[in-house]
Amino acid sequence: MTNTRTTAGLVCAHHHLYSSLARGMPAPKVAPHHFLSVLENIWWKLDAALDHDMIYWSAALGAAEALLSGTTAIIDHHESPNCIEGSLETIYAACSEVGIRVVPCYGVTDRWSDDGNLQQVHPSSAMTRSAQIGLEETEQYLASGKIAMVGVHAAFTCTDETLEAAAQLANEYNTGVHIHVAEGPDDIGAEKRIKQYANDQWLIVHGVHLQEPIAGTIVHNPRSNMNNAVGYARPSQWSNRIALGSDGIDSNMMSEFQMAFVAGRADNISFSPELAWEWLWNSSQLVPETQNDVVTWNYPHMDSPWHVAYTTSVHVSDVKVNNEYVLREGSLTKVELGEIRRKAEEQSQRLHHALAMSA
What is the pLDDT of residues 160-188, one digit of tens each? Predict the structure, then answer.
């Protein structure tokens, strides 16, 4: 029996590639005590500090690490409110250089006032300039003919006008909206505001606190949900297609599958790895081209969820995308991993310095 096994390429159905630079970032001066404070004191400060160099090298690092783990497509959700214009092309360029597919979006939001300060959002308020620029960036990218989605941060940081405009733009280009929904308690009831627009092309990310059905694919992110202490989503309670994302932790979707199984089993002893395995491969339906990619693993049972769920030493040796090796015998073929890591580290230090200055 051969000691290797091939599969199709994996898909990360929800990523934040810019978070590749977050590792080792300075801790906030005030420790977060609930999920909204995590957003306000960590992630919203981080994305506000991003520039094009940071965006490029964070995407390149995330893309490189994706290929090393057998992931050949990333559906990315990006936000950089002080560097919106050209951000999607920057992500595309970095991923293309590495050799991976990317379906980006810009996550529009009204949480930034027109004078650049964070603000609470009232649904009936007017769309902010920041949200308008985000929609313009999205439309420009879609008009170029590249594949993308329309991004929305979350309903609780968007006005009704912005939500409607995002849905209309998605319909115009026959694509879906990629949006965080009911991830934490501050977004409970979000489905009530967006269900009039949602359709099967939408990505409903997290859905931890969903209270009623909504159209679209639910993207389950078990490692992130645990990390942010927002609760267990119980995605199997809904009839939607369920896919798996990482929410920016990394691109290792086999690890995400294993955690999806463990989280499900912790909630219900009858939870089977076969269900989490179905979620893993549902993601490939979102980027169908990956089904023709070829990933070679060092483990002969990569077709068995019961094996993979309990095996921690599976590794990738080769990856073919579009019939071209982008990873060969563990090494990237189009770029030099060491150089990417060096450049990403430089940008990480710049980002961390900016965050320390703004703390």
Answer: 999 999 999 999 999 999 999 999 999 99
| 38 SS3 class | helix
Both tokens of 46, joined, read: 């981080």
pLDDT of 53 > 80? The answer is yes
Instruction: Look up the pTM and report it.
Output: 0.97
Contacts with 306 (C-beta within 8 Å, 6 or more apart), sequence order: 273, 274
Please measure the distance between the N-terminal and C-terminal CA atoms of the chain and give it in whole angstroms: 57
DSSP run (H or E) holding 131: helix 129-143
Indicate the residue type of 324. Answer: E
- Three-state DSSP at 294 gives strand
User: Which candidate, 267, 297, 337, 270, places its Cα nearest to that of 9?
Assistant: 297
Token pair in block for residue 265? 């089993």
C-alpha torsion sign, points 296, 300, 306, 310 = negative
Structural domain that includes position 69:
5-358
Helices 52-68 + 337-358 axis angle, to 10: 130
For residue 65, give the CATH number of its domain.
3.20.20.140
What pLDDT is stored for residue 37 in this prediction? 82
Distance CA 292, CA 223 (A): 28
> Could you give the number of structural domains in the chain?
1
- Here the tokens at position 209 are 């606190």
Strand, helix or coil for residue 196: coil
Residues 236-275 pLDDT 10s: 999 999 999 999 999 999 999 999 999 999 999 999 999 9
- Pull the structure tokens for residue 318: 């080769």
The residues near 348 (Cβ < 8 Å, ≥ 6 apart) are: 21, 23, 24, 25
DSSP state of 285: G
What is the rounded average pLDDT for all residues in the chain? 95
